[in-house]
Amino acid sequence: MSRDKLIEVKGLEKHFKHLQVLRGIDIDICRGDVVAVIGPSGSGKSTFLRCLNLLETPTGGQIVFEGTDITSRKTNIDKMREKIGMVFQSFNLFANMTALDNVTAGPIHVKGMKKADAEKLALELLERVGLGDRGSAYPIQLSGGQQQRVAIARALAMQPDVMLFDEPTSALDPEMVHEVLDVIRKLAETGMTMVIVTHEMGFAREVASRVVFIDEGVIKEENEPKAFFAEPRNERLKSFLAKVL
Amino acid sequence: MFSLDRLVKIWEKYQSFYWNGLQMSLIFAVIAVFIGLTLGLILASGRILYKNPRDNLFAAIVKMIVRLLCTAYVEVFRATPMLVQVFIIYYGPGMVLKIGDSATNRMTWGVVAMGLNSAAYLSEVIRSGIGAVPGGQMEAARCVGMSHWKAMRYVVLPQAVRNILPALCNEFVTIIKETSILGMVGITELMFRSQTIATQSYIFLEPYIIAACMYFVVVFTLSKIISAVERRMSKSVTR
Hints:
The complex is a heterodimer. Chain A is an alpha/beta fold. Chain A has 9 helices and 10 strands. Chain A has helices at about 45-50, 75-80, 100-110, 115-130, 145-155, 175-190, 200-205, 225-230, 235-245, and strands at about 5-15, 20-30, 35-40, 60-65, 70, 85, 160-165, 195, 210-215, 220-225. In chain A, the strands form 2 sheets. Chain A has a 6-stranded mixed beta sheet, sandwiched between helices. In chain A, strands 2-1-4-5 form a 4-stranded antiparallel beta sheet, with helices on one face. In chain A, helix 5 (about 145-155) packs parallel to helix 6 (about 175-190). Chain B is mainly alpha-helical. Chain B has helices spanning about 5-45, 55-80, 80-90, 95, 100-130, 135-145, 150-180, 190-200, 205-235. In chain B, helix 8 (about 190-200) packs antiparallel against helix 9. Chain B is elongated, with a radius of gyration of 22 Å. At the A-B interface, helix 2, strand 6, helix 3 and helix 5 of A face helix 6 and helix 7 of B.
């Protein structure tokens, strides 16, 4: 591939006590890629995503982010995480802060940005996710869809080079799913590099530049979306798609 | 037998003596809780020392030892009676490390003993208050690049304080009652004074009933205030 590699994953393994979840994952993620990760539950796709920013510590293999081996003990992981945005299934907005403060927390406390500048940036971002008027609301006062959009704005506020989405719509009421997907779709159009673990097959087909199928801790199939859904080769993927489509 | 007449007489005669005793009890309670809170915070942080899988062996061992020591402290102080602790601290370090004249010395070590005891309980309150903050909050904070300590400071602890505050106030109320133990080592708080009045006047029931009433009024009022505040806090939108 001609584009530069943003993340290189080599032989990534993870086991919890005796349970081996990842059994050697190899993948390169390039700038501008939108990678959709699908797979049955328990296949290790969330664990894979959480290894990319070391929320889970890999037990084997290597992850190279922008040329730095982040699995090395010497790497300052906090510095790396500034460039890796993360959006969770359960939103995880800071419950003690307003929506606006949620977005400014990173820029102010991590980057040392001035409060006024951070708030200006945060307002722009909240505007972008369609919540310019809800800055003073606490997470508990927002709907699930709104919370998730604030969470996306919070991650974007650090101006990351890549965004990781861990089943961003799985905890949402069906009618709120589209508002979150719309935001992610628009983000993809800006050329943001993204890795999205999702169960939304239609969304994966439409937005992703590549789709990856993880099962039993390894990548069983990887392809561009059209071919991935139209002509699956792996038997397990065939039966998986037959069930979910 | 109980006589209201005697009670009123004793109250009229020793009123200011009682008030001073109550004042001392309250001051001791405040100091003890302050010591307990400070030390409890240290113990709690020791017990929840962050297990970083990237730590080297040395750091991991040091953290394990600190955790172990803090846990041992808490368990020992929670599993022995406070009266025994007060005696041991008073007759142990209190007799060796004299602080001021005998009255000051007694008070200092008495209140230190209560603080040390309270620290064990408060560290558990703090620990569970921090533990009650969902793990996702810490993860999300780390994901915007905050260090473990920044995440604690800006995200986890502010939420933990809300969980801790009611239990902390309750501990204060409990301590007020427990200061009565300090009378046993000759500190002239409310209970000691009631005892003094009893032995001086040969009237035994009424002086203690007055003390009981004084404890009751203070403790009951405070606990009612606390539960009212608690109710209001649970109603607030930010939890």
